[in-house]
Amino acid sequence: MQLRRGEFTLDVDLDCPPGITCVMGPSGAGKSTILAVLAGLAVPDAGRIALGDDVWLDRGRGVEVPVHARRLSYVFQGLALFPHMTALANVAYGLHDRQRRDRPSRAQALLERLGVGHLARRRPRTFSGGEAQRVALARALARSPRLMLLDEPFSALDRELRAQLTALVRELVAELGVPLVHVTHSVAEARLLADQVVRIERGKVVACGAADDVLANVTSLEE
Amino acid sequence: MLGYLDTIDWKPLWLSLQIASLSTVLTLVSGTGFALLLTWRKLPARHLIDAVVSAPLVLPPTVLGYYLLVLLGRNSAIGGAWQWLFGGPIVFTFAGAVIAASVGSLPLVVRTIRLGIEAVEPNLIAAARTLGARPVRVIATIVLPLAAPGLIAGAMLGFARALGDYGATQMLAGARIGGVPTASIFVMDQLLANRDDQVFAMSLATTIVGVTLLYFANRLTHRLHRV
Residue B127: closest CA among chain A residues belongs to which residue? Predict the structure, then answer.
């Protein structure tokens, strides 16, 4: 994918196998832009995105699958839980292709799966940081995604909570068997989570490979 | 006191409330549509449409009334179509007064609603889209509910503006509708006739209605912001 915005140019070629790919890099490197392009929220000037045999974007051939038709889930940095809806309604929002009567029970099951079933009737402003993350993950699973995108969702959490949630994410990805692209600043988090690590700087891939190889001798992203 | 109130002619206030209520419904619906259109950055000629919708803010009310007369008069296409549909003209009628009040208040309503819409966090809209929602569903379930404070504020400002409309209403609907003037025309008539008691009572009544509405609108908006 190639995208130019003012002085910034993103030019990356990524292959994300099932499992967790951590995209790492300093601020302004283009990490979140990669997710936005994958989701269809930003349109690159040139490029191709394919998930198996499904082509979501091919600028050369004029193919552009709209955001709502890409079966993916996206957990935003601020989580973007809908503040005017309960946790149950937030999760049920992604279940609109199911029968209306089945949605509450399915949404409740997802909240239970993430350990926050008791929050079903509450609104996001009453959640703690960890609870909000779990509800956001439950909502992300609602669409039975073929691709999961996580944009630094754990950055504001303490170490213990972060470890709990990264373990949960690993479990979910193993269960679903889908690729997950996870943007993070944290080398420790990437070591815990990643099957593959992609390091980008100034819009270009500077290293890509198994987590142990790419992160060997790396203690911080500023190195 | 009650005897004094009995001497006041309340029909103009009732007429103005009816005109302002219908005008508010019209401007809320059309104003929401315009506000949504104008927040769409890819809209062709967005700035031109914005300027045309906002024009009543800067035009003298009589000029606005003149344009409406030309646009909706018996010899115009719209006026002719209205006559054909409803068997009567728009000008010098209740409908004309509602239209004049609506056009005058539309820019205020559009601008206030637009501010409400633009205050909705873009990530919430993006999240809805990634959850499979098409644009109409995103607008209905995310944008409009979260912009509700802006919609309410816009409706209330529109109502207050319509309640006090004078120039455009007089140009398009005349000084009397079914023999009754609107509240603001009534105040001017009574002032010229040196009937200070009527002027005072009508001025006070319209002030109380306006301030009460704004008070409840503020409270409702505050409650919605806390959600």
Answer: A80
pLDDT in tens, B120-154: 999 999 999 999 999 999 999 999 999 998 999 89
Selected for mutation to probe chain A from B131, B137, B226 (highest A CB count within 10 Å) is B131
Angstroms from A21 CA to nearest CA on chain B: 20
- Quick: pLDDT tens for B162-217: 998 988 998 888 889 988 999 999 999 999 999 998 999 999 999 998 888 888 87
CA B78 – CA B90 distance, rounded (Å): 9
| Cβ <8 Å between A74 and B126 | yes
Q: Is A78 near chain B, with CB under 8 Å?
A: yes
Given a contact cutoff of 8 angstroms between Cβ atoms, the answer to whether B68 and B103 are in contact is: yes
How many angstroms away from the CA of B121 is the closest CA of chain A? 8
Tell me A151's DSSP state: E
pTM over 0.90? The answer is no
Q: Which of B126, B131, B134 lies at the smallest CB-CB distance from A94?
A: B131
**Best CA proximity match to B133, nearest among A223, A82, A20:** A82
The C-alpha atoms of residue B97 and residue B85 are separated, in whole angstroms, by 18
Sequence-distant (≥ 6) Cβ neighbours of residue A70 within 8 angstroms: A39, A40, A56, A147, B130
Note the pLDDT tens digit of each residue in A118-134.
999 999 999 998 899 99
- Which spans in A19-158 are helix H? 31-39, 87-92, 103-113, 129-141
Q: Closest-CA residue in chain A for B124?
A: A80
